[in-house]
Amino acid sequence: MQLKNDESRYGVVAQLFHWAIVALIIVQFILANRADNLPLGPAKIGVLAQHKSFGITILALVLLRLIWRWLNVVPGEPKDVPTWQRIAARFSHVALYALLLITPIVGWLMSSARNFPVSWFGLVTLPDFIRPSKPAYEFLHQTHELLAGTLFWLALLHVAAALKHHFWDKDDVLRRMLPVKLTQETTRS
Ligand code: HEM
Ligand code: HEM
């Protein structure tokens, strides 16, 4: 399989970025949920430290993924996809990328506002871009929760669209994000 994308499918690198980030997002929700159910104490702080480290990893992977995307062609939609679906797909991909970038940045700022500097797996301590402040922490916490919730629902919609393409339209949209053979020629929009 080729490393780079071509006009009909995503290459190995783009696929690895996509699926690694999907796995890490799932880990993020599991860790956030686990932390929510723990009383304030060392166990909760430990789980949140992992959540922060994986979140910063997502931020770095999304930045690398966007650079890789910029260096590649992006496969177009199959030619019989209606215009509204093309627009919805483009809009939702932009929104997903925005959420994948902004959610961790807000998490990082929130930790600084709470006066808990962010450490990446205990190896690197990241700088604080804002000073400790309770009102800022509360605002950023609410924003982080709202962004994560939006990401959750938009990702579900995105999954539903991918499954609709595969099982209903029976096209190659899902296959081209998987390391499997395409069944038909996909054309650019
Ligand atoms: C895409 C990445 C991320 C996702 C999807 C995500 C998701 C979430 C969710 C769902 C919660 C629970 C919200 C609540 O009910 O309080 C949460 C809490 C939290 N997140 Fe994230 N997060 C991400 C990245 C980060 C990053 C990078 C940091 C910090 C560097 C961070 C720091 C926190 C903290 C400290 C809390 C607990 C807030 C509190 O209860 O005081 N998150 N996150
Ligand atoms: C956290 C969950 C997910 C996020 C944040 C996410 C994000 C994205 C983004 C941003 C793209 C655009 C890629 C680009 O053109 O640069 C994309 C494409 C794609 N995703 Fe996901 N994804 C998620 C989960 C899934 C799942 C579970 C599936 C499969 C059921 C899936 C199937 C696809 C497919 C097939 C494409 C290619 C769409 C096309 O070629 O038009 N995604 N995803």
TrEMBL record:
<keyword id="KW-1133">Transmembrane helix</keyword>
<keyword id="KW-0813">Transport</keyword>
<dbReference type="InterPro" id="IPR052168">
    <property type="entry name" value="Cytochrome_b561_oxidase"/>
</dbReference>
<dbReference type="Pfam" id="PF01292">
    <property type="entry name" value="Ni_hydr_CYTB"/>
</dbReference>
<feature type="transmembrane region" description="Helical">
    <location>
        <begin position="146"/>
        <end position="167"/>
    </location>
</feature>
<dbReference type="InterPro" id="IPR016174">
    <property type="entry name" value="Di-haem_cyt_TM"/>
</dbReference>
<keyword id="KW-1003">Cell membrane</keyword>
<keyword id="KW-0812">Transmembrane</keyword>
<feature type="domain" description="Cytochrome b561 bacterial/Ni-hydrogenase">
    <location>
        <begin position="9"/>
        <end position="179"/>
    </location>
</feature>
<feature type="transmembrane region" description="Helical">
    <location>
        <begin position="53"/>
        <end position="71"/>
    </location>
</feature>
<keyword id="KW-0472">Membrane</keyword>
<keyword id="KW-0249">Electron transport</keyword>
<dbReference type="InterPro" id="IPR011577">
    <property type="entry name" value="Cyt_b561_bac/Ni-Hgenase"/>
</dbReference>
<protein>
    <submittedName>
        <fullName>Cytochrome b</fullName>
    </submittedName>
</protein>
<feature type="transmembrane region" description="Helical">
    <location>
        <begin position="12"/>
        <end position="33"/>
    </location>
</feature>
<keyword id="KW-0408">Iron</keyword>
<keyword id="KW-0479">Metal-binding</keyword>
<keyword id="KW-0349">Heme</keyword>
<comment type="similarity">
    <text>Belongs to the cytochrome b561 family.</text>
</comment>
<feature type="transmembrane region" description="Helical">
    <location>
        <begin position="91"/>
        <end position="110"/>
    </location>
</feature>
